[in-house]
Specification:
Layout: H1 6-21, E1 32-36, E2 42-49, E3 53-59, E4 63-68, E5 77-83, H2 92-99, E6 111-121, E7 126-135, E8 138-153, E9 160-171, E10 187-198
Antiparallel strand pairs: 1-4, 1-10, 2-3, 2-10, 4-5, 5-6, 6-7, 7-8, 8-9, 9-10
């Protein structure tokens, strides 16, 4: 098999690099209704483990909708759900425990659900998304600090797509998930990478 040179690899990668280097500006994004692109959306949660180290897991399988108009950021509407049954730490024993009745009780409370109530622009590519998160049967306020990633036509499926990242913090004991607090931290850091495809 003939080796591929570094120069050849650079030529292959060049279109993707160029696309990443010149993200669309927020004002040029198409207004409309979008749905979560489930396969490229992921939520990460991090807790501190006994003061030794930070430990994290992910929740894939997000679904939901976004209504977005770059000329009316404040009117943005976001409604997203994450399946608790999808929690993954790559440790099957721990995953089963987290989904169980002593933790998130996925059988009784299958989804983490976030609905925006207010969006405040904080910079050219950033905004605060203020809303309500429902977890383990309890609803509490949650603010996400979001950053616009980019927009354009996905070259694979030809769908017009926009992307964002967001971070936030919640206390799990507020939702009745208090096992091992404070040894496993009450504070849970959230990190979300989300893609949305335009539906109309």
């Amino acid at each position: 098999m003939k080796a591929i040179s570094f120069a050849a690899l650079a030529l292959i990668a060049a279109p993707a690099v160029a696309l990443a280097a010149t993200p669309a500006a927020v004002p040029t994004v198409q207004a409309g209704t979008y749905k979560v692109e489930t396969h490229h959306t992921l939520a990460e949660f991090t807790v501190n483990h006994f003061g030794f180290n930070d430990f994290f897991g992910v929740i894939p399988g997000a679904t939901g909708t976004l209504t977005f108009d770059p000329k009316a950021i404040a009117a943005t509407k976001l409604d997203v759900s994450l399946p608790v049954s999808g929690i993954s730490t790559t440790n099957s024993v721990l995953d089963a425990e987290l989904k169980g009745a002593e933790w998130f009780d996925a059988a009784k409370y299958p989804d983490l659900h976030f609905v925006s109530e207010k969006v405040v622009k904080t910079g050219p590519r950033t905004a605060q998304i203020i809303g309500t998160v429902t977890l383990h049967g309890v609803s509490k306020p949650l603010t996400l600090n979001a950053t616009f990633g980019g927009a354009g036509v996905n070259p694979m499926d030809k769908a017009y797509t926009i992307g964002f990242s967001a971070v936030g913090v919640l206390k799990r004991s507020d939702f009745g998930v208090s096992k091992y607090v404070p040894y496993v931290s009450d504070e849970v850091k959230l990190k979300i990478s989300a893609a949305f495809e335009k539906t109309n």
